Amino acid sequence: MKELAMSKRKVWIDIPTVAAASPSCPAPTQDIALNLENRKKAIDTAKYGPLNPAEPNDEYWQVLADEWGVDLETAKQQTCGNCAMFNVSPDMKDCISSGLTDDSDTFDKIDAAGELGYCEAFDFKCASARTCRAWVTGGPITAAGKKRTISQTPAPKKDRIKGSDKNKKGSADGKSKVVFDEKTEASLRNKVEEHNKKAPQGRKATLSMLKAVYRRGAGAYSVSHRPGMTRNQWAMGRVNAFLRLLKAGKPERAAYTTDNDLLPASHPRSTKKKASITASALIPEEQALADALLKVVGEYGKFDQDGDGVWAGYTPAAENEDAKIGVACMNCVFYSHDENGKDVCQIISLEIEDLGKCRFAVLPEGVVKGYDIPLRDPEDLELLLASAYAESELTVEIKPYEDYESPEQAILALTEFSGLGYEVEPAIRASWLRAVRNNENPFKRASLLASLKYESLDADLLPKGEK
Fold first, then answer.
1. Nearest-5° Cα angle at 239, 233 to 241
2. Is residue 265 domain-shared with residue 336, that is, in the same domain?
3. What is the Cα–Cα distance from 394 to 404, expressed in whole angstroms?
4. 365, 359 contact by CB (below 8 A)
């Protein structure tokens, strides 16, 4: 309430109480119109978005992925929430809150929905789930006064290259072929060789991994680099950081997570751990077996055949007589190819062929043509037919009572059907007689005893201890 002097009278009027913002608060946090103006600039010049982060928005993210030289999933991880220009320090949160509402509970609900922070690059309030092409690794800013590090300096405009003349979009996914000059490729090959000399099982590097990391680093140089370093040096620095992560199990800097998708599935930081081998035709038991084999390999290394590990039982293509019916590496869920197109297996360390096989094969439904399995000898067919006939003859069914010539024949048939042996014949007979005494259907009552056994009304007639 404020007191105003009017003539000789005192008049009291209500003035809304608004939380006072700190003089250090950026103007856009207090001025909605200015905030919207700056946000529009970010949309127009830096492709700030997407409009609704809850949607897949693959088209939006793919544009940025192409600019950054990374795959779609990696691009989706590079959000305002982990950008070095995203300020979520307590002081900044207070500024944003004071500009929106005087009710802390209301702000908490707004913040929970959008996780608001302040963009130091474009001077506006933004949501953590969105991003823009000016994204810089190393964020967010969580403490007052935290500034961008020297290594988060955007490259000069002349060096902000988009895309590549040699490599297609999305080639840095770790699966596609990446082309470099001979000098760069030779350097990466040497790093693979040196790393693998001392790397334990499950921590080996491949050329395709390092090529993908280098390409990503070269792309990131346009938006984040240390002044004085060349694009090649920056990219090689990222390769070295990746190799340390691969070997040690954790990165030197906790913020380095953008290449985790390139790590082997057995690595503790790998994002592939959640995406185990899957095949649409695998039944649950087969899927569980495939996952279990991958887990064992991840912990102890691939199976081999040299007596120093679990025997793989690999059979070369020339000796695989079962290839003709589909039992072959090429049909197994663990079969894949390396960057040079060579056949490789994810669980055995041997050189394999597409028509080879091993004892650990997991084959989806339909690839093995069981009806084409050749019999070893003509006598086998006669034996199979004889077994099938005997099984059909030994199978006992309860027929309609009219099909039996006498009650005695029906009682014997029910005794056989029970599967408890001929010693239960007196029990079946006694059940029959109980029904006669009670004016019931004797065949029906005796049939229930033969079918339900110890769960039937006449279970007390059966031998004790047979349950």
1. 105
2. no
3. 17
4. no
DSSP-derived secondary structure letter, 267: S
Q: Give the separation between CA 458 and CA 449, rounded to whole angstroms.
A: 6
Least Cα distance to 327 among 303, 298, 362 occurs for: 362
| pTM for the whole structure | 0.34
> 59 phi and psi, to 5 degrees?
-65, -45
Q: CB atoms < 10 A from the CB of 143, how many? A: 10
Q: Which residue bears the tokens 């039944």?
A: 283
Render pLDDT for 101-160 as a digit per residue (tens, 0 to 9): 777 667 777 766 668 889 988 889 888 889 998 888 777 887 755 555 544 555 555 555
Q: Is the domain of 281 the same as that of 253? A: no
DSSP 438-451: TTS-HHHHHHHHHH
Find the largest Cα–Cα distance for the chain.
Answer: 126
Distance CA 195, CA 387 (A): 60
Q: In this structure, is residue 379 part of a structural domain? A: no
Structure tokens at 369: 């043509």
Long-range contacts of 52-56 (CB under 8 A, 24+ apart): 53/127, 53/129, 53/130
Radius of gyration, CA atoms only, the chain: 37
In a domain, 457, yes or no: yes
